[in-house]
Design goal:
mainly alpha, rod-shaped, 3 helices
């Protein structure tokens, strides 16, 4: 079969050039081309143009929406930044007020502690003074009794006169206090 095709091509090859088509092929190809071009021009091209116009409008709409969203985002960011700055300022004011309150509380506590310490010190001094007076009274009576017993033992008599004995004891204690003050 291959031999038959080669033989047929050799016979026709001498009379006809295979690179140049026949005139009826050129005419029918031209008619088909014009019909396809007409259909494409009237049907497909307007639909394609409408589709491209719709896509362009959609893209432009999306770009406008994106620009609007960008503006809103920038406005929201500025508002957020302003609110954040205001919050930081308020936090600083609150911290400063808390520090001032803390200082006041510490000062009040120190003042209260100093007043309480002064009150306790005064109470302790008054208690010490009362105990000192009580000790002096007790000491006077005991020293007086001992002095009278001692004096009675020295002179060999019992000193039972209370007024006289009290006068002797008071004079002895006064002399003792005077000698103590002179030593200081």
């Amino acid at each position: 079969m291959l031999n038959a095709l080669v033989a047929y091509a050799a016979e026709e090859g001498e009379a006809h050039n295979p690179l140049i088509p026949a005139w009826y092929d050129i005419i029918w190809s031209g008619v088909c081309f014009v019909v396809i071009l007409f259909v494409f021009w009237k049907v497909a091209l307007p639909k394609m143009q409408a589709l491209l116009d719709q896509r362009a409008a959609a893209i432009e709409g999306n770009i406008a929406k994106a620009d609007e969203a960008q503006r809103k985002a920038e406005a929201a960011l500025e508002e957020y930044t302003a609110q954040l700055a205001e919050a930081r300022k308020e936090a600083g004011e609150i911290r400063e007020a808390a520090r001032e309150d803390g200082k006041k509380i510490v000062t009040e506590a120190k003042d209260n502690a100093a007043a309480e310490a002064a009150r306790l010190t005064a109470a302790a001094h008054s208690q010490i003074e009362a105990e000192r007076q009580s000790a002096l009274v007790s000491l006077r009576s005991e020293v007086g009794t001992l002095a009278l017993d001692l004096a009675g033992g020295v002179i060999g008599e019992t000193l039972s006169d209370d007024a006289k004995a009290q006068a002797v004891v008071d004079r002895f204690l006064a002399d003792l206090e005077a000698s103590e003050k002179a030593a200081k």
